[in-house]
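dumping this here so i dont lose it
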């Protein structure tokens, strides 16, 4: 083989290598573009998808704890006072952004289902009564509001994360629980069927 032929073969090999490298690079770029376009539509890893997952309650089955607290009017009430109703206990705080965000959904859900035997007990986690009253007035909360300066509800339900919610059926059994902000769709899907039970 002459030097000229060997040189030509080397140049052709280099061209092939360069072309292959370019094609591989273009393939990687196309893969990245497709991935960026596909991920938002798939919901994988998106905050909205994570939030939707957190709104699915856990199904549980245990007796409601014995809990009695002073309500915002100054009277003491207990969970046992609301036996024969479906009770949604919502632990929240005036300073908690997701608590504020979910409150309109709780108000609307209560207004629609109170006549069917729904009671919501919103237990505020320790802020002064005047501050709680401002919050109640701002959101026009029509249901029971209890004050919990000593964190008794967090201990009774063994959950100090806010907000959290527990649904107690008419027999006094806790049936659903979840931690995090809830929405109207979740309430309708999971709580409304309990109102039809005797």
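and the seq i came up w/
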């Amino acid at each position: 083989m002459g030097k000229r032929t060997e040189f030509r073969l080397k140049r052709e090999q280099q061209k092939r290598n360069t072309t292959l490298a370019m094609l591989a690079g273009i393939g990687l770029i196309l893969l990245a573009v497709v991935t960026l376009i596909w991920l938002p539509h798939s919901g994988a890893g998106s905050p909205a998808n994570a939030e939707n997952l957190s709104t699915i309650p856990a199904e549980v089955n245990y007796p409601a704890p014995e809990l009695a607290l002073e309500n915002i009017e100054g009277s003491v009430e207990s969970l046992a006072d609301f036996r024969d109703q479906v009770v949604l206990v919502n632990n929240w705080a005036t300073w908690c952004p997701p608590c504020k965000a979910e409150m309109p959904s709780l108000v609307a859900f209560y207004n629609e289902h109170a006549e069917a035997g729904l009671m919501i007990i919103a237990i505020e986690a320790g802020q002064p009564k005047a501050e709680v009253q401002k919050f109640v007035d701002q959101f026009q909360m029509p249901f029971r509001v209890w004050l919990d300066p000593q964190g008794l509800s967090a201990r009774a339900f063994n959950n100090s994360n806010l907000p959290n919610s527990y649904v107690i059926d008419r027999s006094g059994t806790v049936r659903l629980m979840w931690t995090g902000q809830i929405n109207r769709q979740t309430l309708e899907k999971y709580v409304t069927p309990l109102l039809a039970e005797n």
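Confidence is low (pLDDT under 50) at residues 38-53.
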